[in-house]
Amino acid sequence: xxxxxxGTSLLRSMLFKNWEEKTIDTPYGKVSVRKASxxxxxxxxxxxxxxxxxxxxxxxxxxxxxxxxxxxxxxxSVGSLKAxxxxxxxxxxxxxxxxxxxxxxxxxxxxxxVPVMDADYAGxxxxxxxxxxxxxxxxxxxxxxxxxxxxTRAEIGVLKKMGDGVGMTMAxxxxxxxxxSIPYVTLCSIDNYANGIxxxxxxxxxxxxxxxxxxxxxxxxxxxxLAEGF
Length: 230
Description:
Elements: E1 2-6, E2 20-26, E3 29-36, E4 39-43, H1 57-66, E5 71-80, E6 90-92, E7 95-98, H2 119-131, E8 136-138, E9 141-144, H3 153-159, E10 165-167, H4 170-179, E11 184-193, H5 204-228
Helix pairs in contact: 1-4
């Protein structure tokens, strides 16, 4: 069984509407998921759509582990740190940097984890996306900031020297799943150029418009996975 985790770009998606809803009690709080066949769907922001810095990642990953999840297929939204990585494209990161406190499922015992993204899942996702003739880059460094505010132009001036895309959730989601040794891949939707990459000011309206366009492509990817497997 595999999990599909999505963010706010698919809050209004009808793709999982008819799946069986289930509430799971975890040591960190309740988590709502939807199940169908060999897949479990989880909205990382929860039913009430909490902001990124308030997501209960520990509860989310604990709930998936309790259901016997063998792998996670995630979708994330990022701002591009490179002029050549344009909005409308997609990236499958193979590493990350986090400037946010990352949650751990082992708060009271010594349990060290080597953070590694899953190469097999990344390869599967890349083959699927290229087969759909999407503009997708395999590999890249995801940088996580805390949010909910976007980064300043000065911050982006530093971050663009270190990575390829900037977001607010993936590192905190990937870390606890690594502690459980669950294979994980995230398909990053490039929804905008990060603040300061272009000379023109960043417009939230333009970001929202691009999110909507990318959401249609993401839904097509997920429909293909559900129909053909992953």
